[in-house]
Amino acid sequence: MSDYGFAGESMKQPRSANRVWGAYLPQRVQGRALAFLNLLRVAATPLSCALRSLPIISGVSRSVGGGYTWLMRTLFIPILLLASAARAACPGYTVCPVVKYPVVVNHNPRAKSELAAVDAQEAATLQAMQANDLSFGQLVALLGQALVFDKSLSVRGNEACAFCHSASAGFGGGIPAFVPAGGIFPGSLTARSGRRVPQSLAYAAFAPVLTFRTDTADFAGGNFWDGRATGLITGSAAADQAMVPLTGPTEMALPDAACAVWRVSQAPYGATFSKVWGAQSLAITWPSDTASVCAKPNNGRANQTPLALSADDRTRATAAVQQIGQTIETFEASPLASPFTSKFDAVSAGQARFSAEERAGFELFTGRANCSTCHAVDGSKPLLTDFTSANIGVPRNPSDPYLTENAPDSHGYVANPAGPAYVDEGLGGFLASDDNTNQQWKAAAPQFMGAFQVATLRNVAARPRPGFIRTYTHNGFFKDLKSLVHFYNTRDVLPRCTGTEGIGVTCWPAPEEPANVNQARMGNLRLSNTQEQELVAFMRTLTDGYSPPHVH
Predict the structure, then answer these.
(1) For residue range 88-107, what is the model confidence (pLDDT) as tens digits?
(2) How far is CA 302 from CA 188, 329, 435, in A?
(3) Of the candidates 517, 512, 493, which has an alpha carbon nearest to the alpha carbon of residue 504?
(4) What are the residue ranges of helices labelled H in 386-425?
(5) Mapping DSSP to helix (H, G, I), strand (E, B) and coil, where does residue 298 land?
(6) Can you give the three-state secondary structure of 186-248, one letter per residue?
(7) CA distance 192 to 93
(8) Mind listing the pLDDT tens digit for each residue in 406-417?
(9) If you ran DSSP here, which 8-state letter would residue 549 be given?
(10) What are the DSSP calls for 33-45, one per residue?
(11) Cα–Cα distance between 359 and 532 in angstroms, integer?
């Protein structure tokens, strides 16, 4: 039941070969190392847990160039003991994460402040729901906001949706202590790391249902970086997405989606939920062991049903879970989360003017830099995305904790059995998986390996305070907009990195997935440093909350 813990805010590790082993070694070498590891596991069963750390031995020995047998004989025992101690310190990982998640969540002042803000917003939302002059639409949007800020919807009652989607950071990740890990957040079980950077929930409700477009031979729509929230369940990609984290083992980790319905029935807004969706929505006879079952974390797939409900009650609970998703989608579509109040909107409405730098950036954005080809600016309220997916050649992030989250945690759950050999295939991975039952889509999977959804650029520069660092792309490889723009500009100009020095200055690492990399619209844009800064200046105008100058 325990999560690992240390003193301090983050653990600094040496930049040794094991930190870049999974990031830069060829798949062939990784495969041989893993095969060797498996042989050793069989030969030494009592030490199998510790032997999961052998990629460290392989990586270090190869990095020093020879002497492999000597190094193994000389360092095997001490390294094995160190690895075993590290495993005991952070169960679930073969290499401890660079960020000590439980300590950050429980003791870091910024994280505790963010959690306090979640509680304050929940209280304010519940208060606002008591107003007598609310329209039905306003009531549903506030109910959705209450769901987003309700920590009780997680297995430990400690993590709301808003923990990963901070309003102060444009409803994206808002806790800077997680930046060393790529801005990837833990779940309700705080020692478990997620797989990707949280996407902003603002404007997510406008994503269409995932569709294959025959005229352009691509996919458009869906939610999540990989599009797996297709919208085919509820008719809304955002509503489908809102249901998934409730039972995700590395997210809110409820063991049964019906547990979320039970928690809603116990919440202060339960009566409002019944008012919105009808008395039958929560009219479920709950088993006597519901509380104890719902306190056990999900250690498997998200569609498990350990609660012993009758067939009728299971049907009601399934419908209520979808209603939870639809209510959250209503909040996401409302001005509470998607207000269209940026300087860009004010300029479009004739209420403000761009600065010279912002204007130059906008002209580059819609012209030479090719940005608007995917981040569309058409229409009165453009969403700055076309909801397609692309492989832009993002390098692997060796600081991603998920890469070494390949050991049983304190509950026996292994988040990433592939370990350092894991490659995030994005949309292609979803299309090829058992979660996708459309055979025509499955056949298209190879063309979309490594493709991730084109994110909206609205609020892309939103931050709660000056100096706040945000991470970008699905794995948080980029730590500021300028470096991301520089990657788009020079990806195919700078040579491949051979180590960890000079990244983004003199070289770029290879793509995590080299197949299907977009070569047509980026990589060699021939932009100057000034022009890169102008693009960033324009993107800063996409942050909501802008107040146009007073017009006399």
Answers:
(1) 689 999 999 999 999 999 99
(2) 15, 20, 11
(3) 493
(4) none
(5) coil
(6) ECCCCCCECCCCCCCCCCHHHCCCCEEECCCCEEECCECCCCCECCCCCCCHHHHHHHHHHCC
(7) 9
(8) 999 999 999 999
(9) P
(10) HHHHHHHHHHHTG
(11) 13
